[in-house]
Amino acid sequence: MSLPTFSFSSTAEEVATTFAAELKGKNVLITGTSLNGIGWEGARVMAKYANLVIITGYNLERLKLTEEAIKKEVPSGNIRPLVLDLSSLAAVRKAAAEVNSWPEPLHVLIHNAAAVIGPFKLTADNLESQIATDHIGPFLLTKLLAAKLLAAGTSTYVPRVVYLSSSAHNFPGAQGINFDTVGKPNSETYGAFDSYFQAKTAGILTAIELSKRSKGKINAYSVDPGVIFTNINQKEESIAHMQSYGILGPDGQPSSEHFEWKTIPQGAATTMVASFDTRLNAVPGAYLSDGVDATKSVATHSSDPANAARLWTITEKLLARSLSFELEQKSE
């Protein structure tokens, strides 16, 4: 069968339909599935063909709304909600333990959730909110679910991990990861978009390093979904920042002066490509945009293997310190 070449206008539905056979029998976990978001759209189209779609969110009531909406449209869909707050390392460990208690292997892990682009905010672990939610929490979740992912591998199938990144990693002013502040946030040097750029660079670097360290047993990819008017850029605390960058206009609505906008179905398409397009088996660690491999467009600071290895090591050490601290507290 000749596979189509996807593009800016491709939709998640089109991609899922193309790879319906690949989706069949697969168990997928996708984070950040609130209504009016690309995670919700991805979960909706996957539910039509996948064996199991695990949806996550930190708010149980909103999670139930997502589940109900998907089941209303796809009555046959097997949806399982999971409460997961990626900004809390303890919450990540709790959620991972729940997933690991389930009998099914995990074929695809999609890191779609993201923190709001807003004022400086510390998490319960004294980490900056965006880097914690977009990188450190997902990094820990992947490590904790690695055995479940590996269990899904066969002689003909390699499990996948997908990281939502952005072309913003390469915007003017983006300098890549500030390794000094990953685990030691500084409110005086903090910038909302600088932190966002770093978080999106982290996704690209982690996909590169995970693919390398997995030695063919897990394939990871990073994704630029495009510019989409979703629930996250409608948050009150982020509107002013979005306006300052020209993403939203004075009325708080999308501005087309500097950006070409995608619909939510179009915005979820490249995630579906990264999760199921069989052609990508040949390019583990690739960065995708508009449904195709766009690795050559990645900024040097976001593709340097040395940076990828350094970020991985720093994050592992940070998590080791965090766990040590937690254990000390519990023993007191």
Descriptive report:
GO terms for molecular function: oxidoreductase activity. Belongs to the short-chain dehydrogenases/reductases (SDR) family. Keywords: Oxidoreductase. This is Short-chain dehydrogenase/reductase. The chain has 332 residues and is of the alpha/beta class. The chain has a single domain, classed as NAD(P)-binding Rossmann-like Domain (Rossmann fold), CATH 3.40.50.720. The protein is 44% helix and 12% strand. The protein is built from 12 helices and 10 strands. It has helices at 12-18, 20-23, 38-46, 60-73, 89-101, 129-151, 192-214, 236-244, 264-267, 269-276, 300-303, 305-331, and strands at 27-30, 52-57, 79-83, 108-111, 160-164, 219-224, 227-228, 261-262, 287-289, 292-293. The strands form 2 sheets. Strands 3-2-1-4-5-6-9-10 form an 8-stranded mixed β-sheet, with helices on both faces. A two-stranded parallel ribbon has the order 7-8. α1 (12-18) runs parallel beside α10. The longest helix is centred in the C-terminal third of the chain and has 27 residues, at 305-331. The chain is globular.
Primary descriptors:
12% strand, 12 helices, 332 residues, Rossmann fold, 44% helix
Reconstruct the topology from this structure.
Layout: H1 12-18, H2 20-23, E1 27-30, H3 38-46, E2 52-57, H4 60-73, E3 79-83, H5 89-101, E4 108-111, H6 129-151, E5 160-164, H7 192-214, E6 219-224, E7 227-228, H8 236-244, E8 261-262, H9 264-267, H10 269-276, E9 287-289, E10 292-293, H11 300-303, H12 305-331
Parallel strand pairs: 1-2, 1-4, 2-3, 4-5, 5-6, 6-9, 7-8
Antiparallel strand pairs: 9-10
